[in-house]
Amino acid sequence: MAEAINRVAIVGTGVIGAGWAARCLARGLDVAAFDPLPGAEAKLRNAIANAWTPLTQRGLAPGASQTRLTFATSLAECVGEADFVQESAPEREALKQDLLAEIDAASPPRAIIASSTSGLLPTVLAAKMRDAGRLVVGHPFNPVYLLPLVEIVAGEKTRAASVAAAKAFYKAIGMRPLVVRKEIEGFIADRLMEALWREALWLINDNVATTEEVDAAVVYGCGLRWSLMGTFLTFHLAGGDGGMRHMLHQFGPALKLPWTKLVAPELTEELIDKVADGCEDQAAGRGIAELERRRDAFLIELLALVQKYWPEAEGFAGRI
Amino acid sequence: MAEAINRVAIVGTGVIGAGWAARCLARGLDVAAFDPLPGAEAKLRNAIANAWTPLTQRGLAPGASQTRLTFATSLAECVGEADFVQESAPEREALKQDLLAEIDAASPPRAIIASSTSGLLPTVLAAKMRDAGRLVVGHPFNPVYLLPLVEIVAGEKTRAASVAAAKAFYKAIGMRPLVVRKEIEGFIADRLMEALWREALWLINDNVATTEEVDAAVVYGCGLRWSLMGTFLTFHLAGGDGGMRHMLHQFGPALKLPWTKLVAPELTEELIDKVADGCEDQAAGRGIAELERRRDAFLIELLALVQKYWPEAEGFAGRI
Question: Which domains does chain B have, with CATH numbers?
Answer without folding.
Answer: 7-179 (3.40.50.720), 189-314 (1.10.1040)
